[in-house]
Design goal:
The chain has a single domain, classed as 3-Layer(aba) Sandwich (Rossmann fold). Strand 1 (about 15-20), helix 1 (about 30-40) and strand 2 (about 45-50) form a beta-alpha-beta unit. The longest helix has 14 residues, at about 30-40. It has seven helices and seven strands, in the order E-H-E-H-E-H-E-H-E-H-E-E-H-H. By secondary structure, the chain is α/β, with parallel strands linked by helices. The chain is about 30% helix and about 15% strand. It is globular. Helix 2 (about 65-75) packs antiparallel against helix 7 (about 210-220). It catalyses: nicotinate beta-D-ribonucleotide + ATP + H(+) = deamido-NAD(+) + diphosphate. It holds the Pfam family CTP_transf_like. Belongs to the NadD family. Its EC number is 2.7.7.18.
């Protein structure tokens, strides 16, 4: 059997990862850990999915158009990232399972797809709409967050997690879906809430988010009381 090179990889072997969030605003706490995660897990591309109406969170301060623009500005010079606006076009709550089903149909049955979540989301995953079907459409890659418990909230969720967890990121390219990978990616202690509060207080946020995003926030008068 001939030795395979990077140039012989087929489209189905590329690992696409999706990262959803309100991004109100997008900041380094989103971007830097995910970039490190991409290197660790072998993502070929990370697609940002800004949420329009998050089912489990307060409504964003910035408009969908503003949050989309900020996401595009944040990754404009980074070929790893792109932005998918599909959830912003839906006026009803954005359910991850429905978006993943659509993405799977678009990318076909063989392409490995991954969905990135934080440790906090893993702990409450049993509250998500049709959570037990998520792995039918993708892999789940979990970014550990400092201070969160490792034991999951329900025996059913723990059993599901233990049954699908893999320790080798290379496994994510061997199947199109079905695995859970826990990443050891250092996270930045930055939150959009902190940025909004600092903006409300008139404090500097230049160390927390890309300069292009900061300039846009200023030009739009966002997060000012």
């Amino acid at each position: 059997m001939p030795r395979r090179t990077a140039h012989s990889l087929t489209t189905s072997e590329k690992l696409l990862a999706f990262f959803g969030g309100t991004f109100d605003p997008i900041h380094y706490g989103h971007l830097k850990p995910v970039a490190a995660l991409a290197a660790q897990a072998g993502f070929d591309q990370v697609i940002l999915l800004p949420n329009n109406v998050p089912p489990h969170r307060p409504q964003p301060e910035a408009t969908p158009q503003q949050r989309l623009h900020m996401a595009k500005l944040a990754v404009a010079d980074n070929a790893l990232f792109s932005v998918d606006p599909r959830e912003l076009a839906v006026e009803t709550p954005s359910y991850t399972i429905e978006t993943l089903a659509t993405l799977r149909k678009e990318h076909g049955d063989k392409c490995p797809l991954a969905f990135i979540i934080g440790q906090d989301s893993l702990l409450t995953l049993h509250k998500w709409h049709r959570w037990g079907s998520l792995l039918d459409f993708c892999h789940i890659v979990v970014m550990a967050r400092p201070g969160y418990q490792e034991q999951l909230d329900t025996p059913e969720l723990q059993k599901w997690y233990d049954a699908h967890r893999v320790n080798d990121a290379d496994a994510l390219k061997q199947k199109p879906a079905g695995f859970i990978y826990q990443a050891n990616t250092p996270l930045l202690d930055i939150s959009a809430t902190e940025i909004r509060e600092r903006r409300h207080a008139g404090l500097d946020c230049s160390d927390l988010l890309p300069s292009a995003v900061e300039r846009y926030i200023e030009s739009q008068g966002l997060y000012r009381e």
